[in-house]
Each structure stands twice: as structure tokens, then as C-alpha cells.
Design a protein that fits this description.
single chain, alpha/beta, Spore Coat Polysaccharide Biosynthesis Protein SpsA, Chain A, 2 domains, 9-stranded mixed β-sheet, 40% helix, disordered N terminus, Nucleotide-diphossugar_trans, Glycosyltransferase, transferase, membrane, transmembrane helix
């Protein structure tokens, strides 16, 4: 059932608002999902679309027990990964919910702070802005989630390119001062945690859907970069706050467990670097590929041999742009030998 507020003519402060749907992808993290849904439903979303990636932990039954009329649950027959789940969710909004103007996506371990929708409604968004990123913090609400820090593409901005060579990651990501300000900042990419997307650009074919073959990792940044290449601006709005209870990284460092995540990380990063760097891609390979392998020092000795093997597969497939491996295959070759 479509909620009343979308069609009410008696509340003038509501009629002119942008209609907004949340799109959440979940897989076997029921306890985290419960918290996410709780925080989502207390915000004024018009609809909430949850893509259940064939969870086996009681997620389906719990979702079906909920009675909020804004909730739409899509049950996938298999685990599509985050990329496939978001692709399915975006497609559903674009094709089945014509009244929705914007969507905002996030994982089952992230949630909007109270007032996030109101803050979004108050933004002035020019027609050429296709997406908006938000300020994402760790669960304490104080520490910035580094994996969700928006950035500009240094290969599109000469000044940032120089800054990257001198300052590394800090040279092209938004700074802490941008988080503490109230002004929007124009950027080129961000994660899908709290990413608002103008749905009409999907409906009219100006941008496509997230690339489901990527399964997880980099699909979000690639998607926003492709939107930028299509001519749409991307804003960072620090007044809108989300939190992310991410357990993938170790102390916010580039270390991934279980080890199968290493494969998707490096394979997909090569695709990301290809899209971002263009002509410079061969030079990026010379720098980045060795840096992948050097991450071995952050893993336990018992993991290092398998880490090298997985990374080699990822690099080989990434350079050849081979995204055919199924998830069960990745799991099979990523298991530590006893």
C-alpha cells in the first residue's frame, strides 16, 4: 500500500517534498538488520524496499512479520551480493514505483540518523545533480567511517592529481573540516551507504543499474563515477548523517576477512581504476598491483600463502575484465588449507 503522505493534499508542507524510498540489501545479518530497520522506519521515508539475498537465518520470516505499510520486501532466490541486490532494488523502484523521485541505498549494517530525511528535503538540489552523498560515521557517531569518505577523481582534476602524489589518499578525499561544515561539496564518488540517487535518470536510461556481476565492492564507486561521466553532478551533504557498523575492515585498515573478500576487492578495484584513470591506467597498474601483494604483511602467517593465491587470481581476472566467476567458485578457492 502506498502511504497516505505521498498523495495528501491537506498538508501543504508535505505535498511539495521529494518522494523518497530507502533501498536496503541484507544477507544473514538479522540482528544488524533489525537495528537498521528500526532506525529507518522512524525516519519519514515514503517507502522502504528491502532486498533479502536468500538469507538462511530467519530474515525472511522476520521481515514478513512486520506490518509497516511502507515496507516492500523482495526475496531473491540466491545471494546476489551487494551489487546484485542493489541492482534488483534500484530496478524495482524505477520500474514498479513511478511515484518515487529519489532513492537512498544502504547496507543492513548501516542506518540513517533521526532527521536524515528532513535534512535531505531541505537541500537545494539543482536539476543537473544526479546523486548526493552523506556523512557516514562509525556507530559511536563521532568517528568518521573511512571506507565511506567521499572523494574526487584525481585523474579529472589536475590540482587533486598533484595532491594525491604528495599526500596519498588525503589528497583527493574530503577532509574532516568538510564533515564539520554545513555547506555541500561537489565530489565525484562515494559509497552506497547513504547515497541518494535521482530515479528519473535510471528510468530514462541516462544511467543504468549497478553492475551485478561485480558481486561486492567497488560497484558503488563505479556506479557514481559512471553517473558523473554521464554529465550529472554529485554532492556531499555533511548535514545528513548515517552510521555504519562495518566489520569488514580491521581497525579501518585495508585487511579483509574472510579471505574470499580479497578476491572481489582487488579484481573490482582494477575495474574501478580503469574507469577512473583512463589513459593513465597502465601506469596505475604498475603502482597498484604491487601494493595489493604487499598487503600480505597485515595477515597472519597461516593466511599469507592463500592471500597471495587469491590476489593473483584477482589481478589476472581484473586485468582481463573477466567477471564470470560465480560466488561458490570464489568461496571454494579461498578456503585455508588445514
Amino acid at each position: 500500500m502506498i502511504p497516505y503522505l505521498l498523495f495528501s493534499t491537506s498538508q501543504s508542507n508535505v505535498v511539495d517534498e521529494r518522494s523518497l524510498a530507502a533501498v536496503i540489501v541484507t544477507f544473514n545479518r538479522l540482528e544488524k538488520l533489525k537495528r537498521t530497520i528500526e532506525h529507518t522506519l522512524i525516519n519519514r521515508f515514503d517507502l522502504v524496499v528491502v532486498v533479502n539475498n536468500a538469507s538462511t537465518d530467519g530474515t525472511a520470516e522476520w521481515l514478513e512479520s512486520l506490518e509497516d505499510e511502507r515496507l516492500i520486501v523482495l526475496h531473491s532466490e540466491k545471494n546476489l551480493g551487494g551489487a546484485g541486490g542493489f541492482s534488483q532494488g534500484f530496478n524495482h523502484v524505477a520500474t514498479e514505483l513511478p511515484e518515487i523521485q529519489w532513492l537512498v541505498c544502504f547496507d543492513d549494517d548501516a542506518w540513517p540518523e533521526l532527521g536524515a530525511v528532513t535534512q535531505f528535503q531541505e537541500l537545494e538540489i539543482p536539476s543537473d545533480v544526479g546523486s548526493v552523498a552523506v556523512a557516514v560515521y562509525l556507530p559511536d557517531g563521532e568517528q568518521i567511517s573511512e571506507m565511506n569518505r567521499p572523494s574526487v577523481n584525481p585523474f579529472w582534476h589536475l590540482k587533486k592529481f598533484v595532491g594525491t602524489t604528495l599526500n596519498g589518499r588525503k589528497g583527493f578525499h574530503v577532509g574532516d573540516s568538510d564533515y564539520h561544515g554545513n555547506e555541500v561539496v561537489e565530489v565525484d564518488s562515494s559509497s552506497f551507504v547513504g547515497c541518494f540517487i535521482r530515479v528519473e535518470n535510471i528510468r530514462n536510461g541516462a544511467i543504468g543499474l549497478p553492475r551485478s556481476e561485480l558481486f561486492i565492492y567497488a560497484d558503488d564507486i563505479i556506479y557514481v563515477l559512471e553517473s558523473r561521466k554521464a554529465g550529472f553532478r554529485h554532492f556531499f551533504a555533511p548535514s545528513i548523517r548515517f552510521r555504519h557498523d562495518c566489520e569488514t575492515l580491521v581497525n579501518q585498515q585495508d585487511v579483509y576477512r574472510p579471505l574470499w573478500k580479497v578476491y572481489y576487492t582487488y579484481r573490482n578495484r582494477l575495474e574501478l581504476f580503469r574507469i577512473a584513470s583512463g589513459f593513465f591506467y597502465p601506469f596505475v597498474l604498475l603502482i597498484k598491483v604491487p601494493s595489493f601483494f604487499l598487503k600480505f604483511r597485515f595477515y597472519e602467517k597461516s593466511e599469507q600463502r592463500m592471500f597471495f593465491s587469491i590476489t593473483a587470481r584477482a589481478v589476472w581476472d581484473g586485468i582481463r575484465r573477466d567477471f564470470r566467476k560465480k560466488h561458490h567458485e570464489v568461496l571454494a578457492f579461498s578456503k585455508l588449507k588445514e
